[in-house]
Specification:
304 residues, 5-stranded parallel sheet, globular, 40% helix, 9 strands, alpha/beta
Length: 304
């Protein structure tokens, strides 16, 4: 059966734990190596990954390209606008064609439904590199980073401060799977989708007060208040007043609390320079770990 990686809530906890453990192991095994050296086991040798981008990308584009190369494979990268997708070819037809040309497909898409349509007919693994609904690969890198610095994530409390967006949704999906508590602080008009909150269950606590969410937290996470495609910039800035992660807010968290941000950051909006550049920030490790987490996802998908 073809293994797709579309949403964290679709996978069993044991499979997710195995992927994260593999990410840790792969990073440790190549300590000190040049970026271009292939992993010893080379699980993607002779395999090709197609990457399709409908949205701008820095970390997803570079990390997936580095990931497949380190696994021993190769990549083909295309912007959707340069493909027949951009001229109206049905998603399903593109999926059928690429299934005969490559071994796996990563899509960074505007519509989550399009990725699901692609996966329904694809005979090769499909990986969600970001959609309007979720960003599962990012969360695995985030959890890897937390565990590197603070040990197992199980039993910890993570505070999300800001927009109930796609990254927040994937954190919600991950909470019951990995056994951590997630406090989500969002303005009422930008709260997470009810579908996602149901997936999080008792592991997720929703509030409109950032201070309440952060008190005693082991990790504080935020993201830009205005995502790609959002048209309500001024309204969002007004709604998120008081949600900036600054030194005062971080002081309410645990004394050794970490700060995470998936980047790019709008400094001075959702986070201050003092926090993102400060001693509690692990955002650069977090960005690097996109490579290792995605290597583990690719290896899992290809082993199916």
């Amino acid at each position: 059966m073809t293994r797709h990686f579309l949403d964290i809530h679709r996978l069993e906890a044991a499979a997710l734990r195995g992927i994260l453990d593999d990410a840790h192991a792969r990073k440790a095994a190549r300590k000190g190596w040049p970026m271009g050296r292939v992993d010893a086991d080379a699980p993607a040798r002779d395999h090709v990954l197609a990457m399709i981008f409908e949205k701008n990308s820095t970390r997803t584009r570079f990390s997936f390209d580095a990931a497949i190369r380190q696994l021993g494979g190769a990549s083909i990268i295309a912007n959707a606008g340069d493909m027949q997708l951009g001229r109206g070819e049905p998603v399903e037809d593109t999926a059928r064609v690429l299934s005969r040309m490559v071994d796996a497909v990563m899509i960074r898409a505007n519509s989550h439904e399009d990725v699901e349509r692609f996966a329904r007919v694809s005979t090769v693994p499909v990986i969600n590199g970001l959609t309007d609904r979720s960003h599962p690969c990012q969360i695995l890198a985030d959890l890897q980073t937390i565990e590197e610095h603070r040990g197992p994530v199980v039993g910890k409390t993570i505070a999300w401060v800001g927009d109930g967006n796609n990254v927040c949704a994937s954190f919600i999906h991950a909470a019951p799977k990995f056994g951590f508590t997630l406090n989500v602080a969002c303005p009422a008009e930008y709260h997470p989708d009810l579908f996602d909150l149901q997936k999080g269950g008792a592991a997720v606590h929703l509030t409109g007060d950032p201070r309440e969410a952060v008190i005693g937290a082991d990790v504080v996470v935020t993201d830009t208040w205005v995502s790609m495609g959002d048209q309500d910039y001024e309204d969002r800035l007004e709604a998120f007043e008081g949600y900036t992660v600054d030194d005062a807010l971080m002081e309410l968290a645990a004394p050794d609390a970490l700060f995470l941000h998936c980047l790019p950051a709008h400094r001075g909006e959702e986070v201050t320079d003092a926090v993102i550049d400060g001693p509690r920030s692990v955002v650069w490790d977090e960005a690097e770990n996109r490579i290792h987490a995605q290597k583990a996802v690719l290896a899992w998908c290809l082993a199916g």
